[in-house]
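User: My instructor asked us to take a sequence, write out its structure as tokens, and then describe one feature of it. I'm not sure where to start. Here is the sequence I was given:
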Amino acid sequence: MTDTIEVNVLTEQQAKAELARLADALAKANLAYHTDDAPEISDADYDSLKRRNAEIEARFPDLKRDDSPSDQVGAPVASGFSKVTHAVSMLSLANAFEDDDVAEFDTRIRKYLGLNAGAQLSYTAEPKIDGLSLSLRYENGALVQAATRGDGTVGENVTANARTIDDVPQTLTGAPEVLEVRGEVYMSHPDFDALNARQEETGQKPFANPRNAAAGSLRQLDANITRARPLRFFAYAWGALSNPLADTQMGAIERLAELGFQTNPLTTLCAGPKEMVAHYRRIEQARATLGYDIDGVVYKVNDLALQGRLGFRSTTPRWAVAHKFPAELAWTRLDAIDIQVGRTGALSPVARLSPVTVGGVVVSNATLHNEDYIAGRDNKGGIIRDGKDIRVGDWVQVYRAGDVIPKVADVDLSKRPADALPFQFPSQCPECGSDAIREEGDAVRRCTGGLICPAQAVEKLKHFVSRGAFDIEGLGAKQVEMFYHDDQLPIRTPADIFSLKARDAGNLSKLANRDGWGETSAGNLFDAIDERRDVPLGRLIFALGIRHVGEVAANDLARHYLTWDAFAEAIDAAAPAAECHLQADAAEAAERKAAAEEGRRARIKPVRDNVWAEVDPHAQAAWADLTGIDGIGASVATALVTTFQQQAERRSIEALVSNLQIETTEAPAAADSPVAGKTVVFTGTLEKMTRAEAKARAEALGAKVSGSVSAKTDLLVAGPGAGSKAKKAADLGIETIDEDGWLDLIGAS
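Assistant: Let's start with the prediction itself. The structure tokens for your sequence are:
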């Protein structure tokens, strides 16, 4: 079963087949849930399928289907209802499954908004009702239309049915001229039991659960049937508005209650992740006594102005997340612990399990994360699982909780075999025997063998020829394995691919004469390789397989630097600063340790300032420019520099580049934009938006954003505290404006 194959070991052919299977399964699940009101799989299984689909698409981006479940919300409307196009799309929510996911959600929000960890930021937390989404449109206080979510853009017109629900007001007093209220139609447990009793009394089929009953009742073609069903409605959001309801999410919910809507009394305001998770625990404990079904807790940024700044992704808002309750758990025996070596050298422990069904899926493998997790510690030395380590022969608790890869959650010490020994994590690579070291602050041990490590070399080559990278037809994972171990026509580095034809011509054992090959297939492979000598910059950067550099980051780098030469020069220029960054991290760690031992507050800023004072300004500028690219942080920048500074890796890259024609990335352009094609530099403090927001807006309008001023700079946007860049711009005669001037220029004031 493909469900038991980890995503990181799927072949391209398996991935394509799996994406097709997932698209079909999720499409059927969507129709069963949203259209037929008869779900065939659990919510946890549905979440798991979606997460698996997303991970496969992330690893094989070019295999993403036109009908990808990642781009879909809900399902098309049924034929029995007229269609309603939502004035504001009804999107779904991103999911969180663990407490750490909630903290990461808060961190992402703060990073995007430019808020430090101590800045005040509040969230609402409310139960996630397991029902059917409904949108109610009021004009001049009168209910004029009700619609289901549908596919998020077009829903079903269920106005007549919605009018029969007691919790749905027919008229409002004091409401905005246009008000679209959104919420969830549900059925209470007592009402559901009574309904099913009536169904059985009349010889009709009982409903499987309250959600099915509520959805099926609302979507009756005969409104009289809906009227006879005990439906309820909780309001928690809004769509189109002629005037704002309030300045905050909580204020808007209170306003909806004042207008006559039922709102959930368990909705509360939280000051941060700790309070959010604490409220989640309270709701989870009270779940069985609520009298209606919920499947998690929804967190939303409380400040509506901040919601506006955060905006939306393609199908989900950035400012909200659904913290789902965990899925099924299962116990099984741990038969072995294997160590896999990835293309970045990471040694990953994998649990080999006696097969067990978890959430409807047979599981035989599970991730063990890293050596600390096996030992019962987190990567900072803290105790997890009450300090219980994991040993071969143990009975372990496995859970999925919506995750694509199952995880080991707990150990039953009462069943531990007497001869079970603590697991010794290898200090040498099992593939090549090189030292496997763990750097300060890194949770993962990595092989130092680099290109001499077969696992790394082969995995890097497989990545290089993957669909998101060079995508060479006829040269997939299977062929990479064959050529890597070939003594006469070896492919050990990416550059070897492009010399294959020349080497074959002078070889007595030509490719065409080998088993599985002929003149046609060999010629087709050589032609396919030649076709890939012209390559976009973003694809090349992604194909190098540099740690942390995914397809999105690679394309961001390409759009910023435009040419290979500019990119390579920038990475080289930033090298001294990258080394300094690592030294500063080490110095900070030492200072924190010393401060803890001495019982004083750590002096971090002076330590980092002292280290950075030794760095050449040109290197500092290159580092600032590199890390200033939206989505490119210190970890990505350090990985880039480290790769380019390793002699063997650099020689391999240069040999590759000498065989290619690297396409110059076109600077983005926006029609009718006053900054399209211009190079813009931001300096000083921006008070009305973060640097990331400013850069994203400028690039969306077709500008190139640079981190340094030069003769090629067209415009400098200078906030308070602007220093040398403002002076240099003045010396060069470059136009300089303040933040208000910038907002006026782009029409965002």
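For the description part of your assignment, you could build on this observation: The domain at 450-532 is CATH 1.10.150.20 (DNA polymerase; domain 1). Try explaining in your own words what that tells you about the chain.
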